[in-house]
């Protein structure tokens, strides 16, 4: 019994990790576009994000951080959901019987919570890497001046100087500290930069909206996927092509339900979030008042492309890998 359980865990972890490495890298350019659009504040004088003109490698800025988080997240996603489903399943309910809506909801919440704990530090590093790359590119195109640099003078101008008997020292704007002339764009230097500026808390910015979004992702994704799969004919339930189709459908539902949370999460994980927002609620309020309700849907199209492809590929490869391992085990190659 213990050996079978260990083999099942190995199957789930291997399938999840294999899917994560492939789908994260393939879909990352959409993640770059989505984050760039969400970081842009729709205010007068702030240059809009332009996707065209970047070198190919620029679209993979931050991919290394996301890959690490995705491997951790996806390797436990399916295992966690299966274990959570077992935990919420009544003892007298047969293993092949369908779970009820509330039971699926609870399993999704538990899965999303575990995923969030894995990805939050790497999401902060990713957003910082992308923001550094965007500011550096904007400076290169505009003679060393970016929209961020313009905020330095505006921030200082808004603070009246105090009268003193000695010469007033030149105050350093937070933007001058956060965005010096040379900005790191690789994962190790960005990790060091974040720690130098804000300490350990730099890796946990946006924890609340990230957890809410991730829980929402898992609840919507697995509830939609499992419900559709349960109503499918039995011969399709373990088919990798059908799993890919259901992954696409469930991912579309994820974007529709959680996009505003994703925008707030990105803004709260930006390097200058501590200058702009007091907390996630204040962030949402300022976005609504200053930029309008449509700002909550920034980046929805690239996110739909990213999440749709990721969901389809993830569920499809997961099902294929699981079927392959089960087939190999049946032929006693893993014994």
TrEMBL record:
PROSITE patterns registered for this protein in UniProt:
SOLCAR
Q: Which key words tag this protein in UniProt?
A: Membrane, Mitochondrion, Repeat, Transmembrane, Transmembrane helix, Transport
| Membrane topology term | Multi-pass membrane protein
The record's annotation in InterPro entries points to: MCP_dom_sf (IPR023395), MCP_transmembrane (IPR018108), TXTP-like (IPR049563)
Q: Which Pfam families match?
A: Mito_carr (PF00153)
Q: Where in the cell is it found?
A: Mitochondrion membrane
Q: Where are the Solcar repeats?
A: 7-87, 152-231, 238-324
Chief place where the protein resides: mitochondrion
Please give the family membership noted in the entry: Belongs to the mitochondrial carrier (TC 2.A.29) family.
Please give the name of this protein: Mitochondrial carrier
Species whose genome carries this gene? Nakaseomyces bracarensis
């Amino acid at each position: 019994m213990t050996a079978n359980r260990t083999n099942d865990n190995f199957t789930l972890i291997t399938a999840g990790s294999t899917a994560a490495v492939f789908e994260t890298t393939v879909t990352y350019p959409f993640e770059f576009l989505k984050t760039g659009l969400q970081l842009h504040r729709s205010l007068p004088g702030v240059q809009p994000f332009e996707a065209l003109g970047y070198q190919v490698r620029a679209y993979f800025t931050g991919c290394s951080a996301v890959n690490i988080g995705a491997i951790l997240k996806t390797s436990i996603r399916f295992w966690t959901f299966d274990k959570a489903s077992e935990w919420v399943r009544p003892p007298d309910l047969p293993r092949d019987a369908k779970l009820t809506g509330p039971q699926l909801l609870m399993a999704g919440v538990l899965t999303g919570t575990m995923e969030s704990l894995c990805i939050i530090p790497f999401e902060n590093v990713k957003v910082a890497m992308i923001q550094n790359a965007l500011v550096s590119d904007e400076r290169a195109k505009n003679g060393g001046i970016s929209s961020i640099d313009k905020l330095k003078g505006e921030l200082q101008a808004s603070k009246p100087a105090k009268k003193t008997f000695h010469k007033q020292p030149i105050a350093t704007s937070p933007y001058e500290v956060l965005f010096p002339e040379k900005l790191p764009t690789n994962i190790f230097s960005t990790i060091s930069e974040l720690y130098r500026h804000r300490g350990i808390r730099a890796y946990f910015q946006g924890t609340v909206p990230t957890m809410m979004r991730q829980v929402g992702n898992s609840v919507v994704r697995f509830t939609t996927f499992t419900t559709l799969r349960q109503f499918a004919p039995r011969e399709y339930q373990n088919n990798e092509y059908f799993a890919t189709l259901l992954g696409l459908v469930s991912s579309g539902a994820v974007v529709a339900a959680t996009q505003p949370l994703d925008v707030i999460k990105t803004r709260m994980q930006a390097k200058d979030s501590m200058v702009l927002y007091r907390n996630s609620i204040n962030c949402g309020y300022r976005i609504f008042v200053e930029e309008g309700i449509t700002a909550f849907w920034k980046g929805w199209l690239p996110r739909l492309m990213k999440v749709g492809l990721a969901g389809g590929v993830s569920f499809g490869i997961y099902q294929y890998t699981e079927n392959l391992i089960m087939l190999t085990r049946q032929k006693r190659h893993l014994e």
